[in-house]
Amino acid sequence: MRNIFRDFNVGDDEKNRHEAMHPMILLVIIVVLCALLSYIIPAGQYERVLNEETGREMVVPGSFTFVERTPVSVLSVLTSITLGMQEASYVIFFLLIIGGMFGIINGTKALNVAVANLLKKLKGRELLLIPLLMIFFGCGSAFCGNFEEFLIFVPLVLAICITVGYDPLTAVGIIFIAATAGYAGAITNTFTVGNAQEIASLPKFSGMGLRIVLFISLEIVSMAYVMWMANAVKNNPKFSGCYAYDEKYNKGKIINLENVSKLTTRQTFTIIIFVAGMILSIIGVIEWGFYVDELSAIFLAAGVIGGIVGGLKPREICESFIKGCKDMVLPCIMIGLANAAILLMNNANIMDTILHSLSNMVQKFPAPVMPIGMFIFHEIFNVFVPSGSAQAFTTMPLMTALADKVEITRQTAVLAYQLGDAFTNIMAPTGGEILAALAICRVPFGKWVRYLLPLFIIWWLVSFIFLLYAGSVGYGPM
Fold first, then answer.
1. How far apart are CA 454 and CA 451, in angstroms?
2. What was the pLDDT predicted at 461?
3. 478 domain residue, yes or no
């Protein structure tokens, strides 16, 4: 596999016409806008109480008060960059380990040869890879709450897609559209449904039957959309929103399927170690509650052991690791910038004001469509608080009280939350994981939004149907 990532430098003037805004510039603009909002939006705060079982603070409904304005200074804007990176350090170092591991495995050429042989055998049936991969990623999110962990697969899926004639948008879609459908279905997602149901005093993972149907519905429409778009690009490469851009950046990512050699014994054992690391990480997440620290340890070990077995010398392992880490610098910086924007709003005490204003707007919805109002509320607030668990402890006390007030079930309120927490995760520029994936694939954010928009509308329509049904039948604990 040739170097999976390419330089982001701009070429000649002719090619510059197709160049989109650099993603770092977009995020810097967002950081500055958040700082300016601290001079416009009044500062306010909710009282919070400690949930002793979880150790997390929860908002107290009806406790909002305006406080003295604390606008952000120029120094605060500058320091927010490093503070944002510190807050996201667990993801940033996870990405560096991922990059380093792939750098080592790529240094052995084992992955290149293995993928080339697989694609050669699947020639003419490449479209089948899309539903198979999307089911895997979707189930990981629906049952285990996986999301940022899937960044490990981006380089590999990207290389496969480019080789078989798809575009980078398809690669990002296979992973994160499927993961978003899974997050919205949230069958046994502890981070979203688990926390929300606990706050709403509902049995953990109750109401699973409707969520299973919801997940299957979202996954089907998602797979159909990605497959349709991928097939259209394969038949006509200019159909891709990234066509001109891909011509510049992605030609070198194609895996050569001509004269494919067989895996050597060393390469075979390297692939076995690589796959074993993936399987161990999945089992660890499901059975032992592994998160990024444990996963990083597994990937680091798989990379080093795979490099030794693959025949790399100690110096070559180190150089390959550093080379892989370099490829992850841009995604890491973007995650830090996204966190800086959120940090500024919290420090300026305007996040609670936004929450208070949005919750007041929801109360104006008529009772029959209140679940849709709650869903829209969460979709908007998710732009400012992308973390599912953080959003649950911030918003669910308010939405639970509102559900009781308008006489809709708390389970319906949880359903509106889980759906609203999902979709804008991959549409908003504050979603660090999707920005990292787009940076790895060298996809401009604007092109991703245009690609995703039709499916986004379909997702909303499916959500409306399930929310209206839940509200009408009194969706309960079950």
1. 7
2. 97
3. no
Determine the residue type at 120.
K
For residue 18, give Cα distances in angstroms to 13, 172, 441, 460: 9, 20, 16, 32
Query: Binning pLDDT at 50, 70 and 90, where does residue 168 land?
Result: very high
Our separate counts of H helices and E strands in the chain read 22, 4
6 belongs to a structural domain: no
Is 346 a domain residue?
yes
* DSSP helix/strand/coil, 21: coil
Mean pLDDT of 268-274: 90
Nearest to 343 by CA among 132, 165, 85, 153: 85
- Structural domain of 359: 13-473
In whole angstroms, how far apart are CA 202 and each of 206, 377, 406?
7, 21, 18
Contact predicate 410/200, CB 8 Å: yes
Specify the pTM: 0.80
Buried b (16+ CB within 10 A) or exposed e, 348-359: bbbbbbbbbebb
Long-range pairs, 264-268, Cβ under 8 A, ≥24: 266/108, 266/110, 266/309, 266/310, 266/311, 267/108, 267/109, 267/110, 267/113, 267/114, 267/310, 268/110
* Angstrom distance (rounded) from CA 72 to CA 344: 7
List CB contacts of 308: < 8 A, sequence separation 6 or more: 317
Least confident of 134-138, 245-249, 265-269, 471-475: 245-249
Separation of alpha carbons 218 and 208, rounded Å: 15
| Distance separating alpha carbons of residues 197 and 463, to the nearest angstrom | 19
Amino acid found at 280: L
Indicate whether 235 belongs to any domain: yes
The pLDDT, as a whole number, for residue 146 is: 77
On average, the pLDDT of the chain sits at 85
* Rounded CA Rg of the chain: 23
Q: DSSP secondary structure string, 109-153?
A: THHHHHHHHHHHHTTT-GGGHHHHHHHHHHHHHHHH--SGGGGGG
Tell me the DSSP string of 154-195. HHHHHHHHHHHT--HHHHHIIIIIHHHHHHHH-SS-IIIIIH
Q: Which two three-digit tokens encode residue 49?
A: 């109480």
pLDDT in tens, 128-161: 999 999 998 998 889 877 787 788 788 888 888 8
Q: How far apart are CA 193 and CA 173, in angstroms?
A: 24
Hey, what amino acid is at 181? A
Please give the share of the chain, as a percent, with pLDDT higher than 70: 91
| Average pLDDT of the segment spanning 65-86 | 91
For residue 91, the Cα-to-chain-centroid distance in whole angstroms is: 12
Q: Rounded to whole angstroms, how far apart are CA atoms 285 and 147?
A: 12
- The tally of domains found in the chain comes to 1
